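Methods — Computational structure assignment.
A single polypeptide chain was analysed. Its primary sequence is given first, followed by the predicted tertiary structure written as structure tokens.
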Amino acid sequence: MRSIRIVAVGKIKQSAKYLETGIQLYQKRLSHFAKIEWVEVPEVPPSPTRTVTQVLEQEAQAILKHCEGWDNRVLLSERGRLLDSHAFSNWFLGGNPLNGGPHHEGWDPMIFIIGGAYGTSEKLVEKVSFSISLSPLTFPHQMVRLILVEQLYRAFTIANNEPYHK
């Protein structure tokens, strides 16, 4: 069974409990393929005495504390490599390199990092193995959690020739 940790900035807001319902649905479906561990780090709000750059640095420090000992770090970023679902599945589970990306043996364990509302610092970008984009569109960082677990489930079903991915 694969081991996946997802580190995300902030908590899901009360008004977005539907996201938790969706995440729980896909996490349950994923349970026979992988063990998912969630880590939430506090969101740091900007203030008159704290710039966005400082916010990103503080969030990066908190994220990196939960990445120690994990060599396979994947950052979800709008500047990351854009993959379709088949390429993601092949890369994630098959270990195939993508245009200069690292070769791996199904990267187990793997950690996915979801930044906060302001993105991520360059310091964090430098500390990851690979960076992927879920879409050229911009999504609320809380919604990215649901999209990621759905795509992880889809990757496993593609790799196992299950009918979920049409």
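Note: The beta strands are 2-9, 34-41, 73-82, 110-114, 130-133.
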